[in-house]
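Input chain follows. Return structure tokens only.
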Amino acid sequence: FQDIFKFARTSPVPRQKRSIVVSPILIPENQRQPFPRDVGKVVDSDRPEGSRFRLTGKGVDQEPKGIFRINENTGSVSVTRTLDREAMATYQLFVETTDVNGKTLEGPVPLEVIVIDQNDNRPIFREGPYIGHVMEGSPTG
């Protein structure tokens, strides 16, 4: 039992604390103008002076390009146009901090963007008509 604690103190691999903090971003589909619209913020508690935030992934620098962007100084994430959940329900983005030369200082850290459904499509019944019966006084369920 004591050997476990001894190993933990003398372990040659130092534990690195992440300073970039990202929470999932929830965005309702079919939002109207104006765009761009701020939708979230990335925080870096130990960000060196002069460093910048960088955002990558599908919806940023991969198709469909240009949907999301980040303010490289403040970490504010914005959406540039209306989203459609039926086209894409989630976006997996990555945030990192870079120095002035573009060299990665920390990250990439995953940032999930979830598109919230707005029930904007009529139901489609492929078969039918559907006929159902419920007896009067039936129990719930």
